[in-house]
Amino acid sequence: MVVGLLYRLIYSMRPLHAGQDNEFRAVQHAKRIIVIGSPGSGKTFLAKRLSMWTHLPYISLDDLYWGPEWKRSTDKQFLKQLGEVLQREEWIIEGNYHERYFTERLQRADTIIVMDVSTLEAITGVITRSLNRFLFSKELPKGVKEEAVRIWDISPRFVRFVLGFRRRIRPKIWPLIMQYGNQRNLIILKSKYRSCPWTAPDRRSSP
C-alpha cells in the first residue's frame, strides 16, 4: 500500500508526453467508456475518478451482479440491468464479466481502456482490496456497503483466476478488443499508475 502511494505520487508529478496527452484528450471528450482488466488491476480506482472529472455516470458491473449479503443476481437479472445501461447515451462501465454482453459493450463504447497490468501488480491489488474490505468495509459493491465487516474473500479459486488471467482469459478477450479498438479510442495501460497524470488536480475537466 505504501509502495502504491509512492508510485501514484511520482507518476502524478510527471508531465504528460505527446501520446499520453492524446489519450487524455480522448478520454476527456468520450461519452461511453469501458474499463476492463484483471481483478486488482485498478479498474475501479480509475473509473471512479474519471467519472468525477468527466461527469459521466459510473457503472460498476459488480454493483449490478452482487446484492445484499453478497447474493448473486441471476443471469436474467444481470443482463436486463446491463442491457438497460448500454442503451444510455453516457456512462463509464467498469468490470470484466467477459461472458456477459462483452461484445455489446465494445460495440457501444467510444473509448476502451484496458488495464493490462502484470500478474504481480494485479495480485497485489487484490490483496489490498481484500484488506480494505475485511478491516474497513471499504471497496464493497453498492448493494453490500452497509453490511457488517466483510469476510476475508481471497479464496484459492479466485487466486488461481487472477494468477491465470493473462494466460487464460486475456487470449479470449484480446482479439475482440483489437477488433473493436481499431474503430474506437483504444488505450492500453501496462500499469495502474500509468493513468495518474490524467487524474492530477490540474488535469480535471471543467463542469
The low-confidence parts are: 1-13
Strand % is 5-15%
Instruction: Give me the number of helical elements.
Output: 9
Largest beta sheet, briefly?
5 strands, parallel
**Shape estimate:** globular
SS-based class: alpha/beta
Assembly state of the chains shown: single chain
- The whole-number mean of residue pLDDT values reads 80
Strand order of the largest sheet: 2-3-1-4-5
InterPro entries: Cytidylate_Kinase-2, P-loop_NTPase
GO molecular function: kinase activity
Keywords: Kinase, Transferase
Protein name: Adenylate kinase family enzyme
What keyword list fits this structure?
about 210 residues, alpha/beta, 5-stranded parallel sheet, globular, disordered N terminus, P-loop_NTPase, kinase activity, Cytidylate_Kinase-2, transferase, kinase
Describe the structure.
InterPro entries: Cytidylate_Kinase-2 (IPR052922), P-loop_NTPase (IPR027417). This is Adenylate kinase family enzyme. GO terms for molecular function: kinase activity. With 207 residues, the protein is of the alpha/beta class. Helices cover 49% and strands 11% of the residues. It has a 5-stranded parallel beta sheet, sandwiched between helices. The longest helix is centred in the middle third of the chain and has 18 residues, at 119-136. Mean pLDDT is 80; it is low at 1-13.
